[in-house]
Amino acid sequence: MQIPPSPYDLTPELLDGIVKQVLPHAGVSNVTIVKSHEYGDGDVSTSARATAKLDYTAQSPGDLPRDVILKLSFDPGQKGTDAWYCQLNGLFSNEVNFYNRIRPGLGIEAPRSLGGHFDPVSKRYLLIMEDVTRRGATFPSNLDEVGVENVKRILDAIAIVHAAHWQSERFNGVNGGAKVGHSAA
To answer: Which InterPro entries is this protein grouped with (predicted)?
Structure first.
């Protein structure tokens, strides 16, 4: 699957193929990009994002979110997108693996994923997630004060994830991530 450089070039067929990898009975029949947040807009980090509305096929489960966030690689043709933080391929691969393989079994507050794909050849990726702003979530910028209680909640969630899956055989053969080992020094 090739991920296009612009969210406006995403097709229902591409999104359908990604969604079917994790939700085989779901189907995407239409995608409408509501807004694109790309490099230089001042409100994105290591990835481009787009808010979108999805229409589903009739046989799709009825609880799928219509409002979604599409998180994807920056357009490599845009000025400034050659910075180090736009080439974090291991991070992008790991994020797709997390949402496709780990997130569904976790009892933590996190967006529902409809699937993701990382293309190891082009190093481009796409994640399709529910738009949690519809549930009241907010996303502070680096300039906003987060507060100690919010940091504690984040650390608690990270601890739950890591404790439940530390050295799990579930991850044998999964690409990405760091290899932990000892040197014979």
So the answer is: Kinase-like_dom_sf
